[in-house]
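Sample pair:
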Amino acid sequence: MTRPEIARLPASFGVEIDIDLTRMPSDAEAAELRRLMTEHGLLVFRGHTLTGDQQRLATACFGRVSEDEDGKPLQMHVSNRRESSAPIGELIFHYDYAYDPDPIEFISLYGEEIGDGATPTLFASSTRALDILPGELKSRISGYTALQACFMDRAAPTGERAAMNADCIPRGQPGWSAKDWRNVQKLIWENRAGVPALYACVQHTVRIMELPIDESDALLKKLFGYIYTPANVYTHSWQEGDLVVWDNRTVQHCRPAPNDVARTLRRYEVSDEDLTKDYLAIGRTNKFV
């Protein structure tokens, strides 16, 4: 196999890869893409005219593509020109389903319709942030856990955040609803390939469970300084034909305040379970999306 050409992105992580994705990747090519994903966390492919099936086959290099309620590959869109599966407006840094015990593993976005100057997507590597933590700080947090929740953040009243815990109904069980979208996760957490990450994000991490709320807030502020330092953030300026695939357990993403320029991204995800199907059912009932 001829190895694909790769180039570093202007950040502490991620690579751009030159490979033909209009055909199904061979077993050897798929293995190489998985190796690059494990090493870099985010892969960018530019200038491809891809059908949904071609994107799905490329995404399937990284595992099982999630299915919809009819058992078909779950194809979604993030768009300001058609029905969108994502909330509108700004989305600060997060992992998708950080508040689930088993969040999806990989996300694939393809630039289907992109106008000049469309809103970018920003990415931050929680693995690279962990790499640059001072040794003393890394040792301090090694045994800590963090509460992730969908509908509460550190702007909520101190007493409410201090009282919140993970005594919720498990996903899919009778009575499970949006109020149960929360979970306690290790603050240093490994993905399936054994890559560790500093598992905290500004959108969903409510507090560190082992600390009083004021100490938790101070420590999280310090940790976020490492995660979101400029050298650890990659800004992807979308063009039609771009495909971006990333590890949702080691790399966070955000959408800054959006403009009105056309932006439609086709989306697939990799997960052993069909999380999105479960969450969208409740989200649409409650008009979250």
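Residues 213-227 form the longest helix (15 residues).
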